[in-house]
Amino acid sequence: MSTLVTGIGELTTNDDELGRMRDAAVVLEGGLVAWVGQAAAAPAADARVDVAGRAVLPGWVDSHTHLVFAGDRTAEFEARMAGEPYAAGGIGVTVAATRAASDDELAANLDRLADEALRGGTTALEVKTGYGLTVADELRSARIAAARADAVTFLGAHLVPEGSDAQGYVDLVAGEMLEAVAPHVDAVDVFCERGAFDEQQSRRVLEAARARGLALRVHGNQLGPGPGTRLAVELGALSVDHVAFLDDDEVAMLADSWHGGRGTVATVLPACDLSTRMPLAPARRLLDAGAVVAIASNCNPGTSYTTSMAYCVATAVLQMGLTVEEAVRAATLGGAAAIDRDAPRTGRDGRPLAPLGRIRPGARADLQVLDAPSVTHLAYRPGVPLVHAVWRAGDLVVA
Ligand code: NIG
Predict the structure, then answer these.
(1) Which of this chain's residues are annotated to bind Zn(2+) (predicted)?
(2) Interface ipTM > 0.95
(3) Ligand 1 centre distance from Cα of residue 83 (Å)
(4) Nearest CA to ligand 1 atom 9
(5) In terms of domains, do 84 and 28 share one?
(6) Does 333 share its domain with 228?
(7) Global pTM?
(8) Under a CB-based contact definition with an 8 Å cutoff, are residues 308 and 269 in contact?
(9) Which domain covers residue 385, as residue numbers?
(10) Is 223 in the pocket of ligand 1 (CB under 6 A)?
């Protein structure tokens, strides 16, 4: 069954040859994009949808979320808005609530948030563990995430749980815990920050993950200067996320990591920066230096309780100095690069995975239609729910 999506006023493809097109059409077939071109030249298809001059772009690829959790941290948010600084210790509150929740409760909460994200145009999600912090709780978090996410990340090294000593806990994460979760995850992440895990502890976990063939990520340079970004680049991590505090050498290092092959994506999390009242990450500086930037929601109950990628994109334009085109690219193709899905891959189960983040033949048919003539409206009309329709893997999931 093929579907012709026609009447596209403005089509953002993220494809270097196709670029941004006017009066375009796209054919979807078998879950993939089969054809892209001018509407006047479109081939026949089994079904036809006319989007009446609206803008069409790839679905958002949200490459940083923490959606396996229970509980609520409204009180912590209120205290922060009243002047309290963010302290990573709040993670422990969510750990306690998550451990006390049933599998069904955790899965239902994840589904609620993933459905909310989908209605907002997010067609691909990375989901982290990290609120279990025992072998059993991290394993069930990974399993629950794997049922819904496009990429699953093990974040056992999120916080040293109450009652554990740091070194013993790092041994557990890099040993028994990693062994248990490895079949269910694509990558391993470490919160490399003062108050969480230091450079040596982070390196230990990341090297153990690499030895198992898993991809790496780092939460780094969120709360202040630190070793996270350097470590991520040195170890060839897919991404370093937060990056609010970067010096010029670190910015250059991230840009240079792409010379001669795949480098480390700098993932900025504007909603988190605002909610924690921290400086906004230097996305403009990173792009000017030639780094690859992703924008993600960091949806979690502590530092960034939003699934709205449109809000993150608008913030990146209005407050971080990105053009709309740059912000849209970072929230689609940038996110795809951060989860290693910007090219065809093989999944954990050995099946082929179509690339994400572009609208071109062979890509997964993930499209969002805006109730607007141009993507510029994402920043011009911030806060307005502009999503008119969404296709995910060729299925019309929001209409
Ligand atoms: O990405 N930085 C570490 N992890 C989360 C915070 C999670 C929390 O406070 O619950 C983050 O911001």
Answers:
(1) 64, 66, 219, 298
(2) yes
(3) 18
(4) 302
(5) no
(6) yes
(7) 0.98
(8) no
(9) 2-58+357-398
(10) no
